[in-house]
Write a structure and sequence with these properties.
322 residues, TIM Barrel, 8 strands, 15% strand, binds zinc ion
């Protein structure tokens, strides 16, 4: 296997599925925790960044975000994150923020967001545009999700481009969030949802039929439903595919029905060659020990050729919301 062609690594790229909180570097976690009087070592964080399944990953996500308490904490992580994107030639990113978690902890999302925007502004002049996805947590319920939409609406920021739902897709059926998505549409927000990551292809269908989701987070379960693959290709609904994440959370094993699936077994090439738009992404880069360049390396390992990788780069721009 030869290395990823330099030309692909150096192309300007967009990233459309990445959680800010999942970009926290161990050293930064330790620094922020210390500021709040909690002793956490970098090594401890590194040990926590290993999971046996999706549930354990969610537990770690909760633990890490428990140290994010005030606007300056968020400013620090945006700076680290934007720097990492900039180094990888990323010029545009739609970044997911767990507003549902901020609200659960009694924080003021707007104050946190303003601190983030201030840092993001500095990077605009360096050629990196950041836009934001305000995200609710599925298992927190419909009312909490509606509160995220309303909070986004009252910000009146054109930098918020979409509303999404993450968390455990097996907790509450998508159709129950219909009114929430209707409200997000009324407010002019694009609509996203995590579906078909650890749940079945029916979750993807439900997200399309009931919520009119415009892009699907993960959606790898589609590989188990040929009619759904046809539908995604026909309507050109992109799947935001995050290969390293699927390995780390066990989602790939689950969808492929095998133990310890390898990256070469990922369904990305088959979905892509079926004509479904794919936006290659990292999901939670530091928590899954990956980078966007690393994901292009993964796609290369899966057997995509140079022209196909270039097409993937193009697609990440074509399916951006701004
Ligand atoms: Zn995600």
């Amino acid at each position: 296997m030869t290395a990823l062609p330099i030309r692909i690594a150096s192309l300007p790229k967009a990233e459309l599925h990445v959680h800010l909180e999942g970009s926290l570097q161990p050293a930064t976690v330790a620094k922020i925790a210390a500021r709040h009087g909690v002793q956490v070592t970098e090594e401890e964080v590194r040990q926590r960044y290993a999971y046996k399944d999706f549930v354990e990953f969610i537990e770690t996500f909760k633990w890490v975000t428990s140290f994010l308490r005030e606007p300056p904490d968020y400013a620090v992580i945006v700076r680290d994150f934007a720097e990492a994107l900039h180094q990888q030639h990323v010029v545009y990113a739609e970044v997911t923020l767990s507003i549902g978690v901020m609200q659960l902890r009694g924080q003021n999302p707007q104050a946190n967001f303003e601190a983030m925007l201030e840092v993001a502004e500095e990077f605009e002049s360096r050629g990196l545009r950041l836009r934001w996805v305000w995200d609710a947590v599925r298992q927190f319920g419909v009312e909490a999700a509606m509160a995220v939409v309303e909070a986004a609406g009252s910000c009146h920021s054109e930098k918020i481009v979409a509303f999404g739902i993450g968390g455990d897709e097996r907790s509450i059926p998508a159709r129950e969030f219909r009114a929430v998505y209707g409200r997000a549409a009324d407010l002019g927000m694009h609509r996203l949802i995590h579906a078909g990551e650890v749940g079945g292809p029916e979750n993807i269908r439900e997200a399309i039929d009931h919520l009119h989701a415009e892009r699907i987070g993960h959606g790898i379960a589609a590989i188990r439903d040929p009619a759904l693959m046809d539908l995604l290709a026909e309507r050109q609904i992109p799947l935001e595919i995050c290969p390293a994440s699927n390995i780390c959370t066990g989602a790939l094993d689950l969808q492929m029905g095998v133990a310890a699936a390898k990256i070469e077994q990922h369904p990305l090439p088959r979905l892509f060659r079926h004509g479904i738009p794919i936006v290659l992404s990292t999901d939670d880069p530091t928590m899954f020990h990956t980078t966007l360049t690393g994901e292009y390396e993964n796609a290369w390992k899966m057997g995509l050729n140079k022209a196909e990788l270039e097409r993937l780069v193009e697609m990440s721009f074509n399916h951006a919301f701004r």
